[in-house]
Amino acid sequence: xxxxxxxxxxxxPGWAWLVPCALVPVVLLNVGVAWLGExxxxxxxxxxxxxxxxxxxxxxxxxxxxxxxxxxxxEPLIADAERRHRxxxxxxxxxxxxxxxxxxxxxxxxxxxxxGQLMPDTAALMRVEDPFDPEPSVNASGxxxxxxxxxxxxxxxxxxxxxxxxxxxxxxxxxxGETEFYVAKVLAAYEHTRPKxxxxxxxxxxxxxxxKAVTVKAPAAQxxxxxxxxxxxxAKPPAAPKxxxxxxPASRPATASKPPARVASATH
Length: 268
Hints:
Blueprint: E1 4-7, E2 10-13, H1 18-36, H2 49-62, H3 74-84, H4 91-100, H5 120-125, H6 134-152, H7 155-164, H8 179-193, H9 209-228
Antiparallel strand pairs: 1-2
Helix pairs in contact: 1-2, 3-6, 4-8, 6-7, 7-8
């Protein structure tokens, strides 16, 4: 039977003293992830302890390299990755905006790292040595997203596979309490990051062009006519158009009336 220690007159079993000792590393790990990784996580969270420890170790290894040199802006790196991997323009930018709010050093409560929030296993699969280095991290996120687009041929399913893994997507967005909301956020951000369609100017109809040409050229023609007249000459009003008179029907010629021929009667 273990020893009992009295604290304030209350006897506590010896094994109970091991609980605080076990909680201290968990609390320190979660506090370190929340502070250094710019995220929110409960100090007593026991989920993803191994991945959070790996992410925190990668952060500690990366941080000395960027103390003096600032990271390049993400916008050109994202645009280059979209062109290189043939991703619809604006889609990778929307995804990174939802994943990390374009923060290079972010660590998620699940241990995802960098701008595109790569999990340690995914980063190793994509051969990314430093997930907090923007250039290789953004390029790896673009490659991974492009693979999902080629596999599912649907933007919604590809974004869902990026979040939950391709094995969780079976023809529909998985409803696990996270991925369905994640997909909605990315698609809403994509509406703002995708290029706008160019506005095509409407051409005038063919029936309207002659009328417009007449109204434009008429004042110029009148000005030229005024200049061609000699000075002092009075302007003549325009002659009224001649209206042809209808032709009268031809009258029949008058013929002299001849008396009826007399019939000579033979009188003997």
